[in-house]
Amino acid sequence: MKNNWSNSEANKYIKNYQKLGHSKDMALRVYTTRLLGRNSELVLHGGGNTSVKSKIKDIDGKNYDVLCVKGSGWDMAEIEPAGLPAVKLNPLLALKNKKYLSDDQMVAYQKRNLLDINSPNPSVETFLHAFLPYKFVDHTHSDAIVNITNRSNGKDLCKKIFGPKASIVPYVMPGFALAQKVNEIYKKNPNINCLILLNHGIFTFDNDAKKSYDLMIKYVSIAEQTLRKLKRKKIKQIKKYSTKFEPYEIAPILRGLLSEKKDQKFILNYRSNKSLEYFINGKDVKRYSCIGTATPDHVIRVKPFPLVITPKQNSSIEDFKKLAEKNIKDYRKKYVRYFNNNKRKVKGKKTMLDTSPRVILVQNIGLFSVGDTLSASKIAGDLTETNARVISSVEETTKYKFIPEKDLFDVEYWSLEQAKIKKPKKTLQGNIVVITGGFGAIGSATYKLFKSHGAEIILLDYNAKKVKEMQTKIKDLCLHCDVRDKKSVKKAFKKINEQYGGIDILISNAGTAVGGSIAEVDDKILRDSFEDNFFSHQNCASETIKIMKKQNIQGCLLFNISKQSVNPGKNFGPYGLPKTALLSLCKQYAIDYGSLGIRSNGVNADRIRSGLLNDGMIKSRAKAREVSTDEYMRGNLLLNEVKAEDVAKAFFHLAISKKTTGAILTVDGGNIAASLR
């Protein structure tokens, strides 16, 4: 493994963080933590922690010996001093000889001894860091280390290759019990500089930041070199064959089948590569994929075992649906058995988590990772890729072996682990929302509002340059899509299915505004306006319906219609006519698909400053109505200008109104002439 330490970079960290009032020790702690965290073969999604022992002056003016240890919720790759909360060291050391500490007692004690009570919760391995009498302590879940240890001869192999300064620690549940075990081992051999935790990971430590980091790289490199020398035999593969469906076609089916409850929705993320294909298409995948995760903490993200589906050659979508439905039912039964078998073996009452898999391996197709959010789904996918590489590598040389099922259950149902992923559920969490015309005034306002309520959002826009630019600014998916073109719409929606698993809410917002006297306007202008303001909506809505029918978990269509549909303006027929047709389209979708639980509603907005209604258009419309521009924009009963944010609120209201369909919500400040009758 490459050693990424740089003296010049380390000195920059020292200089920059000292300017901010931090010590040299803290600067180097941040630096080496980032070095570890940015290497995915060492640390992945919270799989590790670091610490530094130092002195800090508290608000009372006294200097305290402290342990600054990684706090909950912080990513090692981007850690800051705030992510290494300071815990008073001496109170931690005072418990060295204590025989037992419950999880609740441990957490409360650590919190009570924080210098800053507002700091994040210190790591569950805080006591382990404290008991090792070194300034710097590093911990990772190195792929190579768990590869060595997750095999029947793992312990013997570790003793053979790592040398006398590395102690081998049998698997113990993280927390105070593990800290006690490590303390016991260290007392017997105080010359060690490394701990190899079987089925877990590795600790290295030294009074010098660089030396501790160097030790991590050294021991991981030994593991990597050992693995390269082992004789290998390729995992036997199933026969490659084709099916009559693609990943994007079955993703919505899987998504729908996973939703046990009406308000439960998952995000599915599809991926496939050579490494995953090799793992998934193994003849024995149902055995080796279900033994356990590469390291225990993965279980809270991916569950103790995946769902494996093996479609038949040339099977149709309908064939797959029937097979998937049966396989998911069987999976739920298996998970219930797993829960019931193990809950009796552990202390305290346990409430079963949902029974839906977090990893679906479809042979000859690929991986569908599952999560409550897109982020959770992608994390499950990343961890599965790591598990796949580790397990495949082990299986090429011997049989994969992990901790007993009961121990894995302990971690999955450990409140301290579940706390890492449990967050208050937002109103639209789990909902996949597609917004066309995503970068305009209304699209942007709608994006911000729906995002704040937890929705997963995809923005579509015809401007490819703007799409590229916007994608650098936000994490949400931005796609180039000409909504007037069916092929372009299909391409975009295929991508959405692969990356999210389906669609719950379509906000059909794209459009253009054109004017002209209806008898004199060129036919092309009128036809183009119908393409922009009617057929574009039909293209997106019809494609959305196909996906929603596969999901079978209801859904919602929302159309930006415009008050021109009911109150035509002079010389504005080329715009108003297709909008009138759009109003009817909105109601038709409500009629045709209401029985499937798919709602269709629209917003009639008027005079919203945007790319459509720009300064030039405002002047033109004001002139047509023989009023000033200010009077035109405030020309409503409330005498208030209506803004894009007001339209966004209307879309949100309709999105959450579960028993409203075929409705048109007017947002114009009051205009009796434009009111629906």
Q: How would the blueprint of this fold be written?
A:
Blueprint: H1 7-19, H2 24-37, E1 48-57, E2 63-69, E3 86-88, H3 89-93, H4 103-112, H5 126-131, E4 136-140, H6 143-149, H7 154-162, E5 166-169, H8 176-188, E6 194-197, E7 201-206, H9 209-229, H10 247-258, E8 267-271, H11 274-280, H12 285-288, H13 299-302, E9 307-309, H14 317-343, E10 359-362, E11 366-371, H15 374-395, H16 405-412, H17 415-421, E12 432-436, H18 441-452, E13 456-461, H19 464-471, E14 477-480, H20 486-500, E15 505-508, H21 523-551, E16 555-560, H22 573-593, E17 598-605, H23 615-624, H24 629-633, H25 644-656, E18 664-667
Parallel strand pairs: 5-6, 9-10, 12-13, 12-15, 13-14, 15-16, 16-17, 17-18
Antiparallel strand pairs: 1-2, 1-4, 2-3, 4-7, 6-7, 8-11, 10-11
Helix pairs in contact: 1-2, 6-9, 6-15, 10-14, 10-20, 10-21, 11-15, 18-25, 20-21, 21-22
* Spatial strand sequence of the major β-sheet: 3-2-1-4-7-6-5
% residues in beta strands: 5-15%
CATH fold-level assignment of the largest domain: Rossmann fold
The quaternary state of the protein chains shown equals single chain
The CATH class name of the largest domain reads Alpha Beta
Fill in the keyword field for this structure.
677 residues; alpha/beta; L-fuculose-1-phosphate Aldolase; Rossmann fold; 3 domains; 45% helix; globular
